[in-house]
Amino acid sequence: MPQYHHSTITDIYWATNDGFQTGRDPMGIQNSSVATYNCLLPGITNLTGHIRYYSLYCWLLYEYDQRDKEKRIALHQYNFLRRAELVIAFIMKERNIRSVVGADFVQRRLYETIDGAYNIAAGADRGNTGNKNKYWSFPTGAFGQYYLGSLIYYGLVKMEENRFYLRDKGKEMARAFTESHDETDRTLFLDCILKGSISEDEINSLQSMALDCIATTSEEWQVLNDLLIREDVDKVTSKRSTLRRESVYLMLKYFNEKPTSDGFVHHRFLAYRPDDELQASFGWYFYYLCEALHYGIESILCLVLNMMFELHNPPIGLLIRETVNRVLNILKEEQRYNNLEEWMQDCNQTIDRQLDSVKKAIKERMYADAMAHSLRLFLCLYKEFQHNKANIMEFEQKHNLNIQRGIISEGLTTYVGRYLHFTIESYVETLLHQVMNEHTMVAVGKMGNSDKDLRKFILENGHTVLVEIRYPNTTTPRIESLHNFLVDLKYLTTDNQLTVIGRQYLEQYGKE
Prior knowledge:
- Helix content is 54%, strand content 5%.
- The protein is mostly helical.
- 40% of the residues are buried.
């Protein structure tokens, strides 16, 4: 008797739909969190892992320009930078440091060797057909993909006609790098780029160029440190901001206090006090509120998608009815309230513990419980918003965050404020419809004119059809990159102890 396996079944061409794509933000609300931490830590991204890359790239562009002017280089600028990144990856291969460009290529031994040396040209150069394995796929390397935006933000680099140029500040950075490294080391590093290879002896000789070896007495340290802790000036509004500088202070304070809470952001939320004069203190508190709201909203979508799976793509009426009943079975005690506002008066749980309850329910696959906890979380957030409304609205307007979908004031008004007179049952049902409608609206809006479908479910003849189950997630607010910068600049040791430099920064902050 013949047997059939999934692997041997093919769809007939008119029945296929391979246009669906995954995405991290199915409700289209996380940009408000991203915009918030962009205000708090400008000039840093989650992918700019080490601050020495900033000075290194400036020096490399300067050296390339000198050779280009003198017609002494046939190597394309892109390949020059790509080779330099791979050279650094080999220099760093024994140092046990994360966030190094090309580290995976080196660790997995995808490189070629030539005469006992590592073949940099084969592993780095674009258009080199001799080796299919490349350390980086993006044409301009990590420089163009990860670091260029930050270098442009700081006014160090510009791009014109597919070529990179140093600005005056970038030339100052390059000079500081030059003054901080022996000519022998600089010459050897450049020779490795130009010849396209590096040996073990050369790697050992170039350890002073490692990303974590910035000498605190050097000019390079001075300019990089100034880059990190100086005030920012918004290029559009000309307003000054000290949020990044203050965030450095708060992170050092966090490690100095040896916190027992799980993470810097959570710690800052708990540590926030209304009389704190630091704007960044309020900013991280604000960011936490946004994240809590977003996680709750996405938990509701997660429940809806899982119910579609469990009920085998049911009619929408059945889906809503079954989901409402399941949530109300958990909220039996809460149904004694006449409306949402009455329930809110008795919601006295802390926001962080309520958020933990939502996350725990998601982890345990108890999705109806997660929605029930999310509703309690929404009410706790709304009470906090009402208590601190003036400061929240001022922060949003000052940093132009009020235009962001999902920002705390708009989100809480949309998901709580307009429904305070609703019964609990009506509220649950309304939110389910709202989440489904908003996801569809966001997904279709993101699709634009492309043929890629971002919907996680579709409606066909009154039935819901599941495409993909998505689970709630949080954004990553550049904390790891800031931490790396502080370790590289010797504010913190590798085991997160404050150095003399770190302690002095704390002691002298505000007294300059």
